[in-house]
Amino acid sequence: MKAIILAAGKGTRVRPITHDIPKPMIPLIRKPILASIIEHLKRYSVDQIIVTTSHLAPKIESYLRDGELLGVQIAYSFEGLLAGGKIQGLALGSAGGMKKIQDFSGFFDDTFIVVCGDALIDLDFEKVLAFHREKDSIATIVLKEVTLMEVPKYGVVQTNEQGRITKFQEKPTPDKAISTTINTGIYVFEPTVFDHIPPEIHYDIGNHLFPALAEAGLPFYGISIPFQWLDIGTITDYWHATREILLGKVKGYNLPGQEIKPGIRGGLNLRVNFAEIDIVPPVYIGSSTLIEAGAKIYGPTVIGANCQIKGGTIIKECLIEDYTRVKGIANLERLIVFGSKCIDPSGDALDIQETDISWLIEDSRREDFGQVDLPYAQLISELAREKAVTS
Fold this sequence. Notes:
About 20% of the residues lie in helices and about 30% in strands. With about 400 residues, the chain is of the alpha/beta class. The chain folds into two domains: about 1-235, Spore Coat Polysaccharide Biosynthesis Protein SpsA, Chain A (Alpha-Beta Complex); about 260-390, UDP N-Acetylglucosamine Acyltransferase, domain 1 (3 Solenoid). The protein has an eight-stranded mixed sheet with strand order 16-17-20-23-26-29-30-31. It has a seven-stranded mixed sheet with strand order 5-4-1-8-13-10-14, with helices on both faces. It has a five-stranded mixed sheet with strand order 18-21-24-27-32, with no helix packed on it. The termini are far apart.
């Protein structure tokens, strides 16, 4: 079976992380969201996948390559152009990107699955496909109920008793929402859907295609079945999803590495004497990471690969990404450290270099010239002070 994964967006709501990596490549404890999606599709006999790319496309292509390591065939459709000697992303919209592929090769020659590349799912596609065929639908959306205050993040649908979609709204305000039933970004389409997508223009599935199908009265249905759906649409979502995985609340998600002790997992080549640190699960430690004696680690926490956590450091409920050195006078609590950024769960971020807190946190690949002789400081207070100065 064939599928397309929509991965061309800029991921603006997950900035500053998406300044460095495309949203589908955001790691959920070492594994990009995109890899988990492909593994799940493969369980339902999907063996040919096209991934649409634009923003930071080479990072997706260099990771997935031709799909052989994941047991599928993967091709890419880049949305952009060469201008002024530079490759520039130019997303065509989710529907426009699919139309470009179909006009180029006719790839979609039978019923196919469409998935957005930014959500962790365990959906039973057999049930969705059976519903789609029973209704003789041109397009079927997988639906989910949310609270009224959540609807501005999603497309909202209205259905009749048979599940036929009669109206579609894209990201309405709560006071104007026609329902609290939302589009999850998971679809089953027939190739005839391309008859309703104009060529060579920016055309979006939610903003343009779905309202047009509903208005035309075409066989356009929605199905709502229980399934796990962790949408990584914002920094808060990323924070929440990682915590849920660590706490064992995400069904079927296999954590990497090996269990060192109950609730503590780690990769290879660790330099950690667990008798000399305080560690409270759940915690994951990436390969080739050093944690010195006297450090205190409280979960749920992820420490990436090739990190250095100096003695005296306190880390509580943090996501520390690869190649991070944390000095022993740091007290990190409820933070995401990603590259040169410190980000709190709400999405507020500080640049480590610009705010001059590099004496606490730096790239572990830099030569360590020794710890600066400063009094013990709690990073949260320092961040708050710097934020007040720069705001």
